[in-house]
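[Archive record]
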Amino acid sequence: MKKRATIIVLDSVGIGCLPDAAEFGDSGAHTLGHVYSVRGMKIPNMLSLGLGNIEGSDLPRVCFPRAAYGRSLEVTKAKDTTSGHWEMAGFPMEVPFRTYPNGFPRDVMERFEAAIGRGTLGNEVASGTEIIQRLGDEHVATGKPIVYTSADSVFQIAAHEEVIPLEELYRLCEIARAQLVGDNLVGRVIARPFVGGNGVYTRTENRRDYALAPMQDTILDALTAKGMEVVGIGKIEDIFAHRGITTVDHTKNNPDGIEATIRFLKEGRGDFIFTNLVDTDMLYGHRNDVEGYGAALEYFDGKLREIMASMTKEDLLIVTADHGCDPAFPGTDHTREYIPILAMIGAGRAADLGTRESFADIGATVYEYLTGEKWRCGESFLKDLI
């Protein structure tokens, strides 16, 4: 029976603000704690593993946790999806991506507009759901794409699917991706298609992310170089610019991503399965939807038992996050938070992993388990799982 490892990233499910959160305007943020205090959550499976036993969790503790539990700092001075996943995979960034709190410089926008042959709307920090309601009618009338950013390093292009067809929107994103390098280095360009009319618009699931390739190898590259099958589920392939991944299942929502993960586990496929479950972030965190956020976590918790039942005694499972996005916190941006860690091999054993110094500890643990070797950064906690 071969060893396998699975990481499931509950996108944006932070577990309390980091010591430097004030530098990001995030003092007091606590995604899990605030969702639990505002609407309560029935998440017995994650609690049984030790989620509430993590330091500062603000969730109910159990006397006998079934897994190893802890939290982690982020070394990279950022709070975005790309840097979080890269650090988790063994590449903390010394210099974070650039952000644009006042919108993109005029020369950046002029170069982009010249390349796509049309003007743009927006160019501001905005909520994606709000800006399409405000500028959607003008976009439909003029055909100009809506460009906006956030507290993260993102260049987002929103367009109505009947005004700018998906393939054309994706082409615009590819143009932006090629331009946003060097002094204007942006972590991700994101296609944000929507539908609707007359001031009422809804984003679709045809989002596409265009990330840079990591500047250094990650554990994904190293594992594929050893001939292992690395499975990317959800937007993982986009986050790593399609590098280091041998098998892709680009699911677009949590239920599909969970079912894909279960399917790969049951079929015995993949040496390393890397899953991102985006709904908590995309649908609920950024929209300040506490009720939806809690319901999404309850749905995952209800499926967690089936995920664990699909594992063999040689399967390593780590459930974690990549940053925060507290839906009960002022604003709609990501929040600078610790991430939770729940980890088990087979049936699991209780262990307090404490506060880890880097997300890279997760990647180091996976790499050591699958190869018996140490990764170049991060401190593996594998000894605490065995």
The mean pLDDT is 96.
